Amino acid sequence: xxxxxxxSRLVKLQKALDKCPRCGKGPMIVDSAGGELFxxxxxxxxxxxxxxxxxxxxxxxxxxxxxxxxxxxxxxIAMHDMGLATVIGGLNKxxxxxxxxxxxxxxxxxxxxxxxxxxxxxxxxxxxxxAFSELDRLSDKLSVSDAVVEKAAYVYRKALERGLxxxxxxxxxxxxxxYAACRDTQTPRTLKDLAAISxxxxxxxxxxxxxxxxEMDIKMPVxxxxxxxxxxxxxxxxxxxxxxxxxxxxxxxxETRISAGKDPMGLAAAxxxxxxxxxxxxxxxxxxxxxAGVTEVTIRNRYKGLRSALGI
Length: 312
Hints:
By secondary structure, the protein is mostly helical. The protein has helices spanning 4-16, 62-65, 102-117, 123-142, 146-161, 170-184, 191-197, 202-216, 229-236, 240-255, 264-279, 285-292, 296-310; strands at residues 28-31, 36-39, 45-47.
């Protein structure tokens, strides 16, 4: 199946050679399946093995027919084989397009079976396949970007190389790696979020996360509380005006350095509550606490600190 660019090139070639250079007669025919340009009268092949740069797959839907990309997925460290593994195709035909004989079909079928069995033959490969399957599920639940997934896969591969996974739960280590990737990329996801979607307790994920930081000497940036504003405001259904006022309050708090050492989620929730009181929006401490995943006591303490420090 040739692309539009290839077909236009072949049509131009066909027009340039209206007559056969051998017999001088008959029409030139393009064989798109075999990639040949030959004479329709004498059969003389003018050009053979024409390169095909179109898709390597067949298009079954209207959307796929407009896609001119090459077949195959890009390489990624979030796959156990990095996307470089090959498989024996299911088409029972040889290189010339002829159907295989019955005995050869049985042989190829056995080869396919052993090829699939040999894809994962080492404990490390089995470990990575199980871990990245869990990573794919967690990243889908958390709705994180591909950059976060790649970073989590990188952290897990390094932990596996250093033997940190041995004797520990794969699910806990991969969840801790994903949390580390979220912290490193400033993605607002908490340990409570990971514990809610995985089968691992929050305490176990935190323990594995501390292990990764200690053994791999990872330096994590300080979480910016402004990154948590949009998330909390969306859950609490707050207005855009209140959200902008909360961002201004947090900016002033950072300038006066009263935000140092405070939980970013609790500080963001308190700033939103202050903004609600200033803008006259009817939201209680309980509503914002539930949206932020913190307690009402935390919001009250941070609220008092913001009011007294900023003179609101």
